[in-house]
Design a protein that fits this description.
This is DUF2169 domain-containing protein. 32% of the residues lie in helices and 22% in strands. The protein is built from 15 helices and 19 strands. Strands 2, 3, 4, 5, 11, 16 and 17 form a seven-stranded mixed beta sheet that branches. The chain has a five-stranded mixed beta sheet with strand order 15-14-18-1-19. The longest helix is centred in the last third of the chain and has 19 residues.
């Protein structure tokens, strides 16, 4: 038995997805697992399993898949006497396995029809343009399971459309000889295994209440990809393409389980070598046409993502989830994502973010109290604050001003609504004196003595500036007050002749 390698859980950071037209990004429900193995070198397989629902009554065609809670991960063969199940913890699948389970409702033939009272149902299943026709035989009407002996080819050969038991690599600790045949890890019948390029949609026919009905189901709108960060700074981050290798259809639940898998070369200590795996989601076309841009979007939104440990073979074997991150581990994982140069997209509307920012700027209430009142925590506000700061600094305004202008106006309105009675008492002369004193002394202490806060001073400054722009007489008076304050502080200014005489004496 090989010596056990040092074990440390591998962190997974999953970026959320923001569908078009929606403000809030959400993580897609899925499981992320890892499996170290060897054949000619040391490898680490990364796989993602997600479950989707479909509604055959949907008006849209092809029928869209909607995310659903994922099924539990499986490791190893089924227990004796139980139906075969898909083993998720395999090194690699060389082809895409399509499996079909569930029941078909077979109704009796109308009374008086010649021949048997129940005729076989002709059905089809496939991915893309290549489909497998098969017959569903029943001795009597009812819900017929899609299992042998009921499922047969049109030529009468029994065929199993469900999962098939595959090789159990855990028996040799996933240590394979150099020329090991990895095809033993396939989990479906060969007639409906596919090359990745063939998989363009899901086709079902003859499996609903109407024997003549055919359903075309779209593939998931988003596909995952992985970035692998290594513990050693000398090893470059790896961009890992994940390929579909399993599509499992359950007619009874109207669900499709999709598995994507990829692999990276590692060392004989993979749990020490690999530090973190980032899972990003994007439309498949985006990945193929602009992977760099897709990753930029993923990493921008990663602070809003989900953080957990990757599932291991032993977890699934015991029927357990990986342990949760401690509060300290979660905090570190979250803030580690803030190194990306581009901030996330703002999720709060301009007026919502502006009102929070205005209240916090007052510093009159505890920060936690302000955030709680607005239904957010300090971490969430940090993401929004950075998002809006970058938006305000970088977005080129449109003709109508755009969201940045809306934010600025909303901030001013919110700030003005928080004005204190003390601000109304401040005269132009007093304002000029306070401003001058703030340049010489600690501004915070100067404002405190004047009964003002930094936000209040900003409102006063804006008020007098706007009035000066509209009233020339007031502008002149304000300029005189500033000059008087400077003279009082620095003494009277010398004339040009006096200045030259002073320089001559030096």
């Amino acid at each position: 038995m090989p010596k056990a390698a040092p074990f440390r859980r591998i962190l997974v950071a999953e970026s959320p997805v923001r569908p078009p037209g929606e403000r809030h990004a959400k993580p897609l429900p899925c499981h992320v697992g890892v499996l170290p193995w060897t054949v000619d070198r040391n490898w680490l397989s990364v796989f993602v399993v997600a479950t989707f629902r479909f509604d055959t009554s949907a008006a849209h065609r092809p029928i869209p898949l909607e995310p659903a809670p994922p099924r539990r991960l499986q490791a190893g063969p089924s227990a004796p006497g139980e139906p075969a199940r898909i083993d998720d913890f395999v090194p690699l699948r060389l082809a895409v396995d399509l499996t079909l389970t569930g029941h078909v409702e077979i109704v009796p033939m109308p009374s008086g029809t010649l021949g048997p009272s129940v005729r076989p149902r002709l059905a089809e299943v496939g991915l893309g343009s290549r489909r497998l026709p098969f017959m569903v035989h029943a001795g009597e009407p009812g819900r017929i399971p899609l299992r042998p002996p009921h499922t047969q080819t049109p030529h009468g050969r029994v065929i199993d459309l469900g999962p098939e038991a595959c090789h159990d690599g855990s028996r040799h600790h996933f240590q394979h000889p150099e020329k090991f045949d990895l095809s033993v890890y396939q989990a479906g019948t060969p007639e409906i295994s596919y090359e990745v390029e063939e998989v363009t949609s899901i086709h079902l026919a003859g499996l609903g209440p109407d024997p003549a009905a055919a359903w075309e189901i779209a593939l998931p709108a988003y596909a995952p990809r992985a970035l692998v960060d290594y513990s050693s700074a000398r090893v470059r981050r790896g961009d890992v393409q994940l390929f579909v290798d399993g599509v499992a259809i359950d007619l009874d639940r109207s669900t499709v389980d999709v598995t994507w898998r990829g692999l990276v070369e590692t060392t004989d200590q993979p749990h020490i070598d690999v530090d973190r795996i980032v899972i990003g989601w994007a439309p498949p076309k985006r990945w193929s046409e602009d992977a760099a841009g897709a990753w930029d979007d993923v990493l921008r939104e990663l602070p809003r993502g989900r953080f957990r440990f990757a599932a291991e073979h032993e977890d699934a074997r015991k029927g357990e989830d990986p342990p949760a991150l401690s509060q300290e581990e979660l905090l570190m994982a979250r803030y580690e994502t803030w190194g990306h140069p581009n901030a996330a997209e703002p999720e709060m509307l301009p007026h919502e973010a502006a009102e929070v920012a205005a209240e916090l700027a007052e510093q009159r209430w505890p920060r936690s109290e302000v955030l709680a009142k607005n239904g957010i925590d300090d971490y969430t506000w940090g993401i929004e604050e950075r998002a809006w700061a970058q938006r305000l600094a970088s977005v080129r305004e449109e003709a109508d001003g755009g969201p940045s202008a809306a934010y600025v106006k909303a901030y001013q309105r919110a700030s003005e609504a928080l004005a204190t009675p003390r601000e109304a008492e401040i005269t132009p002369k007093e304002f000029v004196a306070i401003a001058a004193k703030m340049r010489r002394e600690d501004p915070t202490q100067v404002l405190a003595k004047a009964g003002l806060g930094i936000a209040a001073f900003g409102r006063l400054e804006r008020r007098f500036r706007e009035k000066a722009a509209e009233d020339k007489a007031f502008a002149a008076e304000l300029a005189r007050l500033v000059a008087d304050e400077e003279a009082r502080r620095d003494g009277p200014k010398l004339s040009e002749a006096e200045t030259k005489n002073e320089e001559g004496r030096r």
